[in-house]
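Q: What would this chain look like folded?
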Amino acid sequence: MSLASKLKIESKGMFATSVFYAIVGIIFIAILPTSGFAPHIGMLGILSLIAAYGVFRKRAWSFWFVVILFFAGTTFASFMIYSLLTRDYVFGLSMIAYLVLTWIFTAYAAAKRQVFEG
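A: My prediction, written as structure tokens:
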């Protein structure tokens, strides 16, 4: 029996979206102590974990968490890219990757919005 059938995965795209938000949430929570417990990083981490659960379970409210994370993540990543790209290239490139992936998975969730309503 495959992992997809055990987890009852109907859409690989939605599964990838939930995995993305879960990984981002875990990373943000993990870097929270090194950032001096910045509240915005903790908030993004917690909201990402909640969104991952909601997308995986196809809850109607999870689409709005994804939209909120789109705006909050875009603002956060844009500011970090602007302020740190010339000093820390690895971190700047990781923020660019986070920004692009946030846009991609938000667009996918918006295109498949009817999944959350049913």
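Residues 51 and 62 are 5 Å apart (CA to CA).
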